[in-house]
Amino acid sequence: MSVPADAASLTDPGIDNRRRYVDLMQRCLLGLIYEDPAQDPWTGGKFDLNNRLLGRDWPLRAHSMIGKARMENLRGAIEYVLKENVPGDFIETGIWRGGACILMRAVLAAYGVTDRVVWCADSFEGLPEPNAALYPADAGDEHHTFAPLAVSLDEVQANFAHYGLLDERVRFLKGWFKDTLPGAPIARLAILRLDGDMYESTMDGLSALYAKVSPGGVVIVDDYGAVAACKQAVTDFRQAQQIDEPIRDIDGNERADASAPVRARAHPQHPSARVPAQRGICRTDQRVRGGVCDARCAGRYYDESAAAR
Ligand SMILES: C[S@@+](CC[C@H](N)C(=O)[O-])C[C@H]1O[C@@H](n2cnc3c(N)ncnc32)[C@H](O)[C@@H]1O
């Protein structure tokens, strides 16, 4: 079983080469065209289309694990900020093999955009060991033990190059988020995509970067529905910043899945969510309504992580 053709793309040749290109990029980045098998500890090493569409597995060779629904959401968010002229760069914190950032760069290329940068933040050596003293929600987290989650900078840059998308509009922030994000030379963001799984990683991203998101920009939290600690970080940050706009689900629901084997925190119900950016109105296809927030990093969690540095 394959992903069905994009009917409009096939019948509307005059306007849709851009759409065809991005659609093909997504299929390649997700390993859909060659049915790349899974390598995670819970799906049995097979290619399962439904898992891949919903980002519920770790592909063996494909360049992104976020799944088609979340990738299309990302593409939609990019097209939205381009259409609405929301100023700023794009960043993903937690890029693994780079697939979501490659998609960001591809969409910029498709639209001929030359004044935005795609920032790629990662340790390029996997996730940190949990710091339970500072972040109790991360206690017992095992992500750092999974070797497939550690992908080197060289490998990621090679992945960009394979698609012909490695240029000066792609910049890399190598190191732990707590060290690289606070001083990153980023002026403004139109899209902030957080995909670091853990409480610490999510909170470090929000604390350092949320205030840089332009009014009307889009904040996406990949693991909000999949990793309880990540959700807790978002909840704590929103409370500290007095953000109360609704969070919109992208590709699932928040139902805990009792059948999830091996790791409850990585249950296969792997939904994502957007958190509205500070100030302004965000009329995305997800109908997120932005609100007002002073967007200062005055929350106690920011202070805690700063103290740890
Ligand atoms: C789930 S993977 C990201 C998947 C990716 N977005 C994609 O498109 O497939 C999580 C990544 O976050 C990185 N990461 C998590 N926490 C981090 C931290 N505190 N500092 C630096 N990198 C971190 C890991 O190295 C890993 O590459």
Please render the helix and strand layout as text.
Layout lengths: L6 H5 L5 H13 L19 H5 L13 H17 L5 E5 L5 H12 L7 E5 L30 H10 L7 E5 L2 H4 L8 E6 L4 H11 L3 E9 L6 H14 L6 E2 L23 E4 L23 H9 L1
Parallel strand pairs: 1-2, 1-4, 2-3, 4-5
Antiparallel strand pairs: 5-7, 6-7
Helix pairs in contact: 2-5, 4-5, 8-9
* Morphology: globular
SSE pattern, N- to C-terminal:
HHHHEHEHEHEHEHEEH
CATH class assignment: Alpha Beta
From the N-terminal CA to the C-terminal CA, the straight-line distance is: 49 Å
Work out the number of β strands.
7
Bound molecules: S-adenosylmethionine
Portion in beta strands: 5-15%
- Which structural class fits the helix and strand makeup? alpha/beta
Number of helices: 10
Strand order of the largest sheet: 3-2-1-4-5-7-6
Q: Whole-number radius of gyration?
A: 18 Å
- Based on the structure given, which CATH architecture is correct? 3-Layer(aba) Sandwich
**What value does the average pLDDT take?**
82
Classified in CATH, the superfamily is Vaccinia Virus protein VP39
User: Helical percent range?
Assistant: 25-40%
List the uncertain runs. Answer: 253-309
Q: How would you sum up the major sheet?
A: 7 strands, mixed
- The number of distinct structural domains comes to 1
In CATH, the topology is named Rossmann fold
